[in-house]
Known about the structure:
Layout: H1 3-12, E1 18-22, H2 29-44, E2 48-53, E3 71-72, H3 77-86, E4 89-93, H4 105-108, E5 115-119, E6 130-133, H5 140-150, H6 159-172, H7 183-194, H8 199-207, H9 212-223, E7 226-228, E8 233-238, H10 240-245, E9 268-275, E10 280-287, H11 293-300, E11 304-305, E12 309-314, H12 318-331
Parallel strand pairs: 1-2, 1-4, 2-3, 4-5, 5-6, 8-9
Antiparallel strand pairs: 7-8, 9-10, 10-12, 11-12
Helix pairs in contact: 2-5, 2-6, 5-6, 6-7, 6-8
Amino acid sequence: MNEYQIEELKKLLATPKKVAIIPHRNPDGDAMGSTLALAHILNKLGHQATVIAPNEFPDFLAWLPGAETVRIFEKEKESTTRILNESEILFTLDFNALHRTGEMEMVLQNLKAPFVMIDHHELPDSYAQIAFSDVNYGSTCEMVYDLCFYLGIEKYLDKTAATCIYTGIVTDSGSFKFPKTTSKTHQTVAHLLDLGIENTTIHNLLFNTNTYSSLQLLGRALQNLKVLQKYKTSYITLTQAELDSFNYKKGDTEGIVNYGLSLKDIIFTAIFIENKDEGIIKISLRSIGDFDVNQLARTYFNGGGHKNAAGGKSTRSLSETVTYFENIIRELPELK
């Protein structure tokens, strides 16, 4: 973030304003942590900040401070559209293209207030008047933390904001094991600990919330695991019928894709999850090393993300999507 952008943002925030803060559709820990942290800080500054999520967030994030105040666009289209139209600043966090908000995109495209993007994904769109976009960060939450210092408002970082920020850092870093976890990341976390966060409690709330049904679903997913050893690739499928049979709830499939990378000599994995309501196959992609799943997601599955973690979707049937995927894999020189 350059000095000009910092000064422009300071000017925007110089007087109390109505602010809307928006995560991407199907928000994860980083999206919810960053938006709630920013809302808390801006409200302490005297602004009227509202987090508006495109759709419901997973139950395992419902404990986050301020989660009960989040407005859901899909459930409250009229009232949330009114809030968006009345907003004087629009923050978009943890995404860099408006289509990542799904149906909400049509409303956002027609808004006149200035957009502020805070995001760490590649190839940002140009909708934002102010963009803090940096792929070197491991999480948007870490960017929100740094933004407080850029704006000179770090004194408003308290235990509540720190708890939200830590949540995004720990989830997007894979509990500090992903490559973009740096010494700076650990320095940030050290300060969050000094602010009083209860890291053990947060870990338990995030990762020790399995139900009997969700563990059974994991078992079925692992039964469905396929390995293409020749191409150093694995993948998992879950049908809508399988989800229904194990009483699937939003968030139950979180992290399952990573099991495919635990296999020896596998550098690329995917999970394909059928969603009958939306008429799509939801796709998550993960890799190790130099294999770029962001580019693959953008090229073939109308998605994107990071080099080693990305997502996309397919409107083909599940079986057609898997066949399409296997044909792609066979033609990629990086996997031969």
